[in-house]
Amino acid sequence: MAISPFRSDILKGKVAFITGGGSGINFGVAKALAAHGADIAMMGRREEVLQQACQELAKLGVRTFYKSGDVRNAEACKAALDETVNALGKLDILVNGAAGNFLCPPEELSPNGFKTVVDIDLNGTFNMCRYGFQYLKASKGLIINISATLHYVGTPFQAHVSAAKAGVDALTINLAAEWGPEGIRVNGIAPGPIGDTEGMKRLAPGDSGEKMKKEIPLGRFGETAEIGLTAVFLASSAASYITGETIVVDGGAWLSKPPMVPRALVEQMMAKSKG
Ligand code: HXC
Question: Fold for domain 15-274?
Answer without folding.
Answer: Rossmann fold (3.40.50)
